[in-house]
Amino acid sequence: MHVTAHLDTFARDHLPPPDEWPDLCFDLPELAYPQRLNCAAELLADTPPDRPAFRTPDGEVWTYGGLRERVDRIAHVLTAGLGVVPGNRVLLRGPTTPWLAACWLAVLKAGAVAVTVLAQARPRELATVCRLARIGHALCDARVLDGLLRAEVPGLAVTPYGGDTPDDLLRRPAPDTPFPAVATAADDVALIAFTSGTTGRPKGCVHFHRDVLAVADTFSRHVLRPVPDDLFAGSPPPGFTFGLGGLVVFPLRAGACALLLEQASPRHLLAAVAEHRVTVLFTAPTAYRTMLETLDGYDVSSLRRCVSAGENLPADTWHAWHERTGLRLINGIGTTELLHIFLSAADERAQPGTTGVPVPGWRARVQDADGAPVPDGVPGLLAVRGPVGCRYLADPRQREYVRDGWNITGDTCVRASDGRFRFVARADDMIVSAGYNIAGPEVEDALLRHPDVAEAAVVGRPDERRGQVAVAYTVLRPGARTGEDALRTFLAAELAPYKCPRVFVFLDALPRTATGKLRRFLLRSEGDQR
User: N or C end of the chain, less CB within 10 A?
Assistant: First the structure.
């Protein structure tokens, strides 16, 4: 590791032991970063000052010049006014706005460590994050300040922004001069991203300054291929790395612009695309499926790139989106541990029902539980290497995720002879019933082909005779009257008999995270209690 610029070395001191780190590869010339690197300064460099950087639905436009001025002002307040020193962890909390993005950039430019959480995070969740990351400072949108104060974090200095109180971040005095970026090392910690909670046990994923640029210089540069005239938008907030990349890092790295939406439901996304002529869209498969229902009411002809991640993309959704828009969805697998997407394919290489191939700069293979590669066509665990790797903050689960230098993502996949990877299931979503392996997502895809099914999730429930049985949690479309018998009959024509669920549970909605990712552990825990 290079000589750190951090005065507060907590994050570095609590990285895993070096022998538990994954192997890294920097094969592409654009990944040859200098030893001293501040990613915020890099993201803000070079783009002409009059180019738009951020837009809001109400018509506000932040140019790159205006963004730099605001970031520098916040950085001055952080350091001179609030006493933040390089390496301090700073919690960021608020809806998706240009001010949240500016605070994130300012924290990094000042050499501190950004810990961005959701505006919807509950006090208990906030307290847990602050305890695990030893956070001493917080910048919080004044509209959600109360929840952070109710977390009652000992010693946390909270500064609101966007309010009307004298201590507001935007009212504090600061010199009207450029802020010189702290000369952080390329491998100084830039951010700690906590897993989104599908397992209920948050883990702090530590990422370096070079990591932030690496995901832009691999997936965005080689697969997404944005241009300066692009306008990005999407549903995942910057508190998730999917949103951080798609709404902040990727557009800024390309000198493009992002439309930042506080409300980003499928209906809001469609309206935003139509009104503001969005060209690049990031959201989850469920949102694309929902948007198809009302697509005819909106002009989405401005779209040229649509990225789907966060959960498995059903082939039917891919086909339906392509038929209605002429666009090939860019499917991808990414994890918080690896910051963004590492398997994907675009344009002619995109094939429905597959995830794609390793993004340039990344390597992937399928292996068995002992770490030995398996032949093409045989399901196994997905193992990945690239310029970014998993480093948990003081967490023994590091040894589960990184084995023999590979990141084991927890996905069961199959590699075809042409090099394409097909997602089968999350490893813990494989249902073993009476000796048969049942992939929950395969059954879900079949259910979603029924015209009355809006959403479906299939998980395993413990069973004394069979070990597990498949349980289908199903959400029907409004007004549908389809029952369990009709769904069984439909599935009997779609799947082998052993794959058909033994139990159907009808719900009004499935439990999901703010980005639309299914919280399967809640469904499994419900089954465990029955």
Answer: C
pLDDT, average across residues 37-56: 97
Q: Determine the Cα–Cα distance for residues 517 and 216; give it in Å rounded to an integer.
A: 23
Residue 523: enclosing H or E segment and its boundaries? helix 520-528
Q: Which residues contact 348 (CB under 8 A, 6 or more apart)?
A: none
For 4, 458, 464, 468, 501, the CA distances from 439, given in Å and listed in that order, are 46, 9, 20, 13, 11
Q: Where are the domains of the chain?
A: 434-528
pTM recorded for the entire structure: 0.86
CB 62 within 8 A of CB 108: no
SS3 105: helix
Domain 434-528 has CATH 3.30.160.20: no
SS (H, E, C) 435-477: CEEEEHHHHHHHHHCCCCEEEEEEEEEEECCCEEEEEEEEEEC
Dmax (CA) for the chain in angstroms is 72
Whether 125 has a pLDDT exceeding 90, the answer reads no
CA dihedral for 33, 36, 42, 46, sign (positive or negative): negative
pLDDT at 201: 67
pLDDT at position 197 over 50 = no
**231, 247 contact by CB (below 8 A):** no
pLDDT in tens, 392-412: 999 999 999 999 999 999 999
Establish how many alpha carbons lie within 13 A of residue 207's alpha carbon, considering only the half-sphere containing its beta carbon: 30
Residue with tokens 């032991």: 17
Least confident of 428-437, 468-477, 490-499: 428-437
Q: Identify the burial level of 202 via C-beta atoms within 10 angstroms of its C-beta, where 0-12 means exposed, 13-18 middle and 19 or more buried.
A: middle
CA 161 to chain centre: 25
Q: Write out the two tokens for 360.
A: 């340039």
Query: Which residues are within 8 A (CB) of 266 and not within 5 positions of it... i.e. 6 or more apart?
Result: 235, 283, 287, 290, 291, 294
